[in-house]
Amino acid sequence: MIKESQNGHYYEDVERNRIFTVALIYEQAADKLAPWDAAAAEECYQKKVDLLTPLAPVSFGLAETLRKLADVQDKQGKKEQADATRKRYNEMKYNLSEMEEEVRREHPELAEYVKNIYKKLFSGLGLADIDHDMQLAIKYKQALNSVKYPHDYFPELSDFFSKRRICLCVGNPVGGILITGINPSRKRFAEDKEFAYTFRGATVEEKRKTGRISNSYWRQKYKMLGEELIEKTAYLDLYPLGFTSQDGFEDLIEKNYQFRAAIVSITQREIETHIKPVLIIVANKKSSYYWGRNDDATWMGYDMEKLSDDMELYQIKGFKDRPDRLNPDFQESSLRGSLILFYGMYDERNKEKLLSESDFKQLFEKAKVMKKESGVL
Questions:
Q1: In sequence order, which ranges of the chain are alpha helices (DSSP H)?
Q2: How far is CA 282 from CA 93, 100, 169, 290, 321, in A?
């Protein structure tokens, strides 16, 4: 059987398969050479590019090879060549993104297919209404596209997490308490798949089902709040992206500001427009600066007033007047009047500062009163 390639040349299927196989071998060799012999790796990557360009001038495989080629050119100090290769890579990724959008427009059933995936994922969690969580998951998924972050240090990071899939807490109560983390932990060799759970399921239901909570993180949250407050508590990670180590996660994303801003913007919109808590407990000390607590890091950009010398408790007054704030279309914050407790720095080493279940109940009642007095409900 004979087929015509995009540039008009003819190849028998056997010959095409042979070329793709040879190209794959070159890439495998280059991947092994890249850490210690950039010049040899460059030669192998270039051979793959030369082989595939006539057959598939715009393809995901070729785009990925161009990215790797630019990296090894950088290692050798070939800045102009690396810039040219990276420009070709970005153009190809843009064209691929446009092609994807065109396919989605021409085949609306694909969007329904994606929705069905999340419907199936959420179906066993006992949720009364899955539409909101399904749309939130899709927003995060759509943000995991390197074409959107051309100026980041490592744009392909978003593609890495897209392959790993998201891990999202769903079915969150509104108008009560919100606990926030930085990102979900993930076993090193865990399967790449979407994962959804409920805060109640990870704590109360696990305790009732097995008699104990095996995960120490959720066990600590159960002990902290107790079942009564958990029923009123939502949970969100600022980044619903699993990674083995939180220190490693922070190091990985550090210089990718566009990517970080896009993900945290989605999380902030979910908090502002849907969850609207009266009490926020920031359970991860490394995530505190995202709230605008530090003068040199605006991010979500909340203006806060400290309420206590004994704990890191603040009341949100609104947004800071800063041009670099995320979601600048928000003029007023639905969190104005809400209390926020930066609790991530307290653990068993600071037992005198740890709050009991009774303390959190009192704090929640105080938060409801202060929220009502602020006039924002």
A1: 13-33, 38-52, 60-75, 79-106, 109-122, 131-143, 157-164, 199-200, 206-210, 216-230, 246-253, 257-270, 357-374
A2: 37, 38, 16, 10, 23
How many angstroms separate the CA atoms of 172 and 236, rounded? 9
Task: Give the tens place of pLDDT for each residue, 279-318.
Answer: 999 998 888 889 998 888 899 999 999 998 888 999 999 9
Q: Does residue 67 contact residue 152 with C-beta atoms inside 8 Å?
A: no
For residues 219 and 212, give the distance between their C-alpha atoms in angstroms, rounded to a whole number.
8
Q: How many whole angstroms separate alpha carbon 326 and alpha carbon 301?
A: 7
Q: Write out the two tokens for 196.
A: 């959804």
Query: Is the pTM for the entire model greater than 0.85?
Result: no
Residue 19, φ and ψ in degrees, nearest 5: -65, -45
Buried (b) or exposed (e) across 314-345, using 16+ Cβ within 10 A? bbbebbeeeeebbbeebeebbbbbbbbbbbbe
Q: pLDDT digits over 248-281, tens only?
A: 788 888 888 889 999 999 999 999 999 999 999 9
CB of 326 closer than 8 Å to CB of 265: yes
